[in-house]
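note to self: dont lose this again. the chain is below, predicted strucutre after it. 237 aa total, dont forget to put it in the shared folder this time
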Amino acid sequence: MSHEDSKVTTSLYKRVCHFSIMASALLVSCLYAAPTQELNQQKTVSALSERYGDRAGLRANAWFKIVNDSQKLAEIEKLEKVNQFFNLFRFIDDQTLWGDSNYWASPMEFIGANGGDCEDFSIAKYFTLLQLGIPEDKLRITMVKATSLNQYHMVLAYYEKPNSIPLVLDNLDKTIKLATKRKDLLPVYSFNGQQLWLNKEKGRGVLAGSSSRLEKWTDLKLRLGVDRLRQPKLNME
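---
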């Protein structure tokens, strides 16, 4: 990549929505998701209640009910259940909630805190759908340009088949829609637990290769359970 190309790409991937990654790092990143974990409901509910309060325990129980009741549903129904559940949570920026301008909350931290920013919504939906048996290669956490807001934003995309136009799960427009129906979103790049894609159109995008792990993704994997729950600065209850 030339110096001028690097400058242009870095500008394109500038963090907005509290998500900052240098483009040069993105182009050589290979992301590895931790396998779905078997969470003990009683331990999880108890941990979230103790850390965040009784209402957090109620939200954890509601999450387990979604996971347990949705196992035999069709994939589209799983998407709808998970999207509806997490879109009930509140949007708040990382600095206000965590005192950190770019913190990737784990799904349990997101449930415990009762809110987060766009990447937290997408990450929680992603890992929950993995728990429900959605194949990883059908899911992409996707950075987009939200033209209606004139800023970058993160959503979760679902591909029924490798060449399908993806469905978009979003906390801004709460209705799941085909990417071609979301004229307000311009895809930039996407990733799952295995690879990174650069997106030039509404489809899957171009595979960008793989080499080293992304630091924040690696850190997130270590916090997927309830043993390292972070205390937010702000009480959202």
